[in-house]
Amino acid sequence: MAECCDSRGCAEEFDAAFAERMAARYRRRGLTRAERRLVDFLAADGVRGATVLEIGGGVGEIGLELLRRGAERCTTLELSSAYDEQAARLAADAGVADRVRRRIVDLAAEPEAVERADLVVLHRVVCCYPDAGRLLSAAAGRCRRRLAFTHPSRDPASRVVSAIENTLAGARGIRYRSFLHTPSAMLRALEEGGMRPVLPGRGWPWRVQGLVAA
Fold it and tell me: Strands 206-213 and 143-152: what pairing?
């Protein structure tokens, strides 16, 4: 889906300045705790030669780490091209630019436009999408082996943060909104798509869930 068709305002909220901050943070500190858990889960059965699909991958740091561990190639999907410049620099610095492909695609709207992959990951993505069940169902349909995703904790603190974010976005005239989806409903969508949960959601503020193809 072309960037001009983005109905969720992601291109407005996650712009080039945001991408630059994310790339700088990764260069300084590496992966966050939640990102390390995602990578470790996805690589648990071995990653050499695997294909990776990083949905809403931003600057692509999770894909880069899996490529470093031996994955063959990574496709990163985004709704905005704002990340592309920083992502290309990070991939070039890591020496894997020829093994990374970036596409502007709304997977929930066009699941058949994306090839299946061995490993699928969605980090900080479902909270940005109004229909998480549809998105995760599409992700399950693209996964051969392992799928991992994160979602915010549904606790009072997260509810306050989400409400403040949405209020500020509205005040700035930005269409983007964040969502606190029900974890059980998200898992149900994945199970109906042929996945089996094996890593229970833990962590704060991002809970990490891991599933394998049933």
Answer: antiparallel
> What is the residue-wise DSSP string for 120-149?
EEESS-GGG-S-HHHHHHHHHHTEEEEEEE
Q: Tell me the three state secondary structure of residue 73.
A: strand
Q: Residue 165 in contact with residue 105, Cβ under 8 Å?
A: no
Distance CA 78, CA 54 (A): 9
Single pTM value for the model? 0.91
Look at strands 195-202 and 206-213 and give their pairing: antiparallel
Distance CA 140, CA 200 (A): 17
Per-residue model confidence as pLDDT tens digits over 75-108: 999 988 999 999 999 999 999 999 999 999 999 9
